[in-house]
Specification:
The complex is a heterodimer of chains A (443) and B (163).
Chain A lengths: L5 H5 L1 H19 L2 E3 L6 E4 L6 E3 L19 H15 L12 H14 L12 H17 L5 H59 L7 E4 L1 H14 L3 H7 L1 H14 L4 E4 L4 H39 L25 H25 L22 H38 L2 H15 L7
Antiparallel strand pairs in A: 1-2, 2-3, 4-5
Helix pairs in contact in A: 2-3, 2-6, 3-10, 4-6, 4-11, 5-6, 5-11, 6-7, 6-9, 6-10, 6-12, 7-9, 8-9, 9-10, 10-12, 11-12, 12-13
Chain B lengths: L5 E2 L3 E2 L9 E9 L2 E9 L7 H12 L1 H15 L6 H14 L5 H6 L1 E8 L9 E9 L8 E6 L3 E4 L8
Parallel strand pairs in B: 4-5
Antiparallel strand pairs in B: 1-2, 3-4, 5-6, 6-7, 7-8
The chains are: A mainly alpha (443), B alpha+beta (163).
């Protein structure tokens, strides 16, 4: 994909050279030296007097020797070049965000399966989980009687729905991060190129004494990131945010990002004023980048804290099954209904396995490497994104295994009911013991 | 302080005028005559060595400035409406006579005044204004050459009523 504005950014090195020459022209004009009509590689006092200095080439290199009050202003020219490099240099080699596409796709796909943005109004989770989960609930409630049904439904329907939503919402927050980063850097490149171009033009126009309104630039990075976060976070708000604590974390992040207003102004009438305003404009851009990354980072840190503080809502393995009896109570069920429940639980097993496999793991290194002074530092949001990613993946892994145990427990209970032999009862007892064990999170 | 500054050509600088600007009149020898010089300073509070140096630079190289002015006048002769072309016509009417006496006319022009305005900046782009008249006094009237920053010399328009 060709990213808009990239061409101009790719030419930033050339632009910087032209900025240097325009800045030197402006500085010389500040002292009433101008390129002469007869030879535009020479600055003459007032544009026509005998005193002159050599002009740098089109890329701002060289120049400065002459016969004005001083023999040479080459050192002053070099100071200007160094000053511009000092302001613009760190903006070279910005990331393009492309490396965020793979994790963004992964978390989006897993989030969809678990029930994030594609969740229906009534179905808990996406179609892959919501529909079979609803069928399990309906069948057990309407067609199966027995004391085991209450704890079974409590854990493997009600709590599982919550966990599925919660993990889906964690994926939404991760997706907001990766999508925002994916959109942020091409937009930042566009903004850097536009700010530099504006400064170059301002220097050139001031050297030519052209009247020039202040160059007010609306930073494209603000709208790009706000749009990306809103598109992900608000898509699932109607269903997910209402049921999961992480919904409010995502909403806060969305509000924070929406609230970042940034316009950069390049102004000034002398070389020094314009250089200062260039530095300020790039500083404003950096403030916007930092505020955006901070909002994303805060959302992910808050999500990590929320999950760790309420593990049973995000990890089915951490939720204990209530008293589960089979042999003593009265049970009524048919093989057909038992098959319906088991088949639908198998569908959920598959969906969870697919969601976990699709999620994979976070990028091993920061996908948006940049100068340490830009945005939230050299690592950006990578550390918190990686931690949330690993936590979500581990919770999903444990939930997948726990749901499979629940499925096995249901099958064994049914088997025990229909065969009433000792081995079936032992199977139920073993699975209940397995269910009671809680794995260490490990992340 | 301006009082301590001394021009190589004009001696100690003593500006008259107030906050709106300052000026000083003097004279320098040029081409065998005394040429009246006026300096006009837009920002007396910023007047210093750099500005003084710009003034002396002009007075150091009056021959160069005069040469540029004469080239500009000669160029202007090609346009009938220009001040030198009209002064030439008036001079011819006074009986100079010959069909093409351009060279003689130009040779008869002598600078009568120079004004140096070193610090007018963007708002007042005249840096030097040089005025020429006919040395023989046959026709009164002047041709004025303005040296603008950054575009260089150009002729001031002829008077509406002619010479």
């Amino acid at each position: 994909m060709r990213i808009m504005g990239d061409t101009q950014y790719d030419q930033l090195s050339d632009t910087i050279g032209k900025m240097k020459r325009a800045a030197i022209d402006c500085w010389m004009a500040d002292q009433s030296f101008h390129p002469t009509p007869a030879n535009d590689m020479i600055y003459a006092k007032w544009g026509w007097m005998l005193n002159f200095y050599n002009r740098p080439d089109a890329n701002g290199n060289g120049g400065g020797d002459g016969n004005g009050v001083k023999d040479s202003v080459a050192a002053e020219f070099e100071e200007i070049r160094v000053a511009i490099d000092g302001v613009v240099g760190r903006w070279l080699a910005l990331p393009d965000g492309a490396e965020c596409e793979t994790p963004q796709t992964a978390v989006s796909s897993t989030g969809s399966i678990l029930g994030s943005s594609v969740a229906g109004a009534t179905a808990p989770g996406g179609a892959d989980i919501g529909t079979p989960n609803g069928t399990v609930h309906e069948t057990v409630v309407n067609s199966i009687e027995g004391s085991f049904t209450a704890p079974f439904l409590d854990k493997y329907y009600t709590q599982f729905s919550k966990v599925s939503h919660g993990l889906g919402e964690a994926c939404v927050i991760l997706e907001a991060n990766y999508l925002a980063e994916m959109r942020m850097w091409p937009a930042a490149r566009t903004d850097v190129a536009a700010i530099c171009e504006s400064a170059k033009n301002r220097w050139a126009q001031k050297a030519d004494d052209a009247a020039q309104a202040n160059g007010t630039l609306m930073l494209t990075v603000v709208a790009a990131v706000a749009g990306a976060v809103a598109s992900v976070v608000t898509a699932g708000a109607g269903t997910v945010a209402a049921v999961a604590a992480l919904g409010s974390v995502a909403a806060i992040a969305n509000t924070a990002v929406q609230g970042i207003a940034a316009e950069a102004v390049v102004s000034g009438n002398t070389y020094g004023d314009i250089l200062g305003s260039l530095s300020d404009a790039l500083g404003t851009l950096n403030d916007a980048l930092e505020a955006q990354e901070r909002a994303l980072d805060t959302a992910m840190s808050d999500a990590i804290g929320t999950i760790r503080g309420d593990l049973p809502s995000y990890n089915l393995d951490a939720f204990s099954l209530d008293t589960y009896t089979t042999g003593t109570g009265t049970m009524t069920l048919t093989q057909t209904h038992a098959d319906i429940v088991s088949n639908n639980m198998a569908r959920i097993d598959s969906a969870l396995a697919e969601a976990y496999a699709g999620l994979g793991s976070a990028p091993s290194s920061n996908p948006t490497v940049r100068n340490a002074s830009i945005g939230l530092g050299a690592n950006g949001t990578h550390a918190s994104a990686s931690e949330l990613y690993a936590l979500t993946a581990q919770c999903l892994s444990l939930t997948t295994a726990e749901y499979a145990r629940g499925h096995g427990l249901f099958d064994a209970t049914v088997d025990d009911y229909f065969t009433s032999d000792a081995s079936a009862a032992q199977t139920v007892a073993r699975l209940r013991a397995d269910e009671a064990l809680t794995a260490e999170l490990g992340v | 302080m301006t009082a301590t500054l001394e021009s190589r050509h004009l001696g100690p600088i003593d500006l008259d005028g107030g906050s709106g600007g300052g000026a000083m009149d003097g004279a320098v020898p040029f081409a065998g005559h005394s040429l009246p010089v006026r300096i006009e300073i837009d920002y007396p509070d910023r007047f210093g060595d750099a500005i003084l140096n710009d003034i002396d630079m002009v007075l150091d190289r009056l021959d160069f400035v005069d040469g540029l002015a004469r080239d500009t006048i000669a160029e202007g002769m090609r346009r009938d409406a220009s001040a030198p072309a009209q002064l030439y016509q008036a001079w011819q009417r006074k009986g100079a006579g010959r069909e093409d006496a351009t060279a003689e006319f130009l040779g008869g022009l002598r600078p009568t005044r120079i004004v140096v305005l070193p610090d007018g900046g963007r708002s007042n782009p005249d840096r030097v204004v040089m005025t020429y008249g006919l040395a023989d006094g046959s026709v009164t009237g002047a041709v004025t050459v303005r040296f603008l920053e950054p575009t260089g010399p150009e002729l001031a328009p002829a008077p509406r009523a002619g010479f």
